[in-house]
Specification:
The chain is mainly beta. Helix content is 14%, strand content 36%. Strands 1, 2, 3, 4, 7 and 8 form a 6-stranded antiparallel beta sheet that branches.
């Protein structure tokens, strides 16, 4: 299925994933889904992201606070997750384009600073920045 992957600090990118193992690979473990949008889509993330010490990723509307660690956005079909349409991909690329730095919280509402994201190289999935030398 075609999804939109959102990693902490990076711009969202499209990815094809298959089955439960593929979903778990993207989020780094057991999955959980939140449904914070009126549109039939899910935000699928790691079920224990905070316990695993994953970094803050993006804030969510609808009282969900924020998501830690990588997540992906997929469509909701009758009884399973499915591929996003090209229109949905563009909508959520725009929505999650800016990276967020968590600077505080007021109750369950994260207070963030939005910053320009890093870009992932499409073919390799690696950061386009040059590697730093080891010291």
């Amino acid at each position: 299925m075609k999804v939109l992957v959102v990693e902490p600090g990076y711009a969202p990118y499209e990815k094809d994933i298959e089955g439960l193992h593929g979903m778990q690979e993207v989020v780094g473990g057991a999955i959980t889904a939140i449904y914070s949008f009126d549109e039939p889509v899910a935000v699928v993330s790691n079920d224990d992201s905070i316990g695993l010490g994953m970094p803050f990723n993006r804030s969510m509307e609808g009282g969900y606070g924020g998501v830690f660690g990588p997540f992906f956005v997929c469509a909701l079909e009758e009884d399973h997750f499915g591929s996003l349409t090209p229109e949905q991909i563009e909508t959520y690329k725009k929505k999650f384009h800016m990276a967020e730095l968590l600077i505080g919280a007021k109750g369950n509402t994260p207070i963030t600073l939005k910053v320009e994201p890093r870009q992932k190289a499409q073919a390799s999935g690696r950061d386009k920045r040059p590697k730093e030398r080891e010291r």
